[in-house]
């Protein structure tokens, strides 16, 4: 970055720059944004959140990309959607279907990361809750939650997502009940009690 700055200084007409700065101070000249190269601005400021979210979803959807890259992309996406506006933008950007599809990924790390993203997006966010429900996200989450053969960390993240989806959201709770969510929870409790008895 320092080298880029030094190059810019060395290749700028200092006298003209000084005159322009004085004219701007006096209000006689305004900077022309059309002369700014978007690629240079992106290199200096970084990509905007929407671009980073889209790239993360593209990565997890690409069958050729590595599991390691997908896990990193999911971590980045989860951090981005901690902001309520970004979580709501998942629907505006039509990203939910691609995210939900990865709940069926063959890799447990990916399923866990996607469930985590779903859970974070819907926390205290009625619009995101509605969007996840409208995009049929509840059923695959319930499948992860109720599958006793599923990785326990995946099930924990699915539980996190489901609890966030139904909390203070009557429509989500109604669908949870309709799709057998309470039965799934009862099975989890029964299985847990059975394991505890076996250990004692």
Automatic annotation (TrEMBL):
Keyword annotations of the record: Repeat
Organism: Umbelopsis ramanniana AG
Pfam family, one: Fes1
UniProt cross-references to InterPro entries, sorted A to Z: ARM-like, ARM-type_fold, Hsp70_NEF-Inhibitors, Nucleotide_exch_fac_Fes1
PANTHER family: HSP70-BINDING PROTEIN 1, PROTEIN FOLDING REGULATOR
Entry GO MF terms: adenyl-nucleotide exchange factor activity
Gene Ontology cellular-component annotations: endoplasmic reticulum
Family: Belongs to the FES1 family.
Nucleotide exchange factor Fes1 domain residues: 1-90
The protein's name in its UniProt record: Nucleotide exchange factor Fes1 domain-containing protein
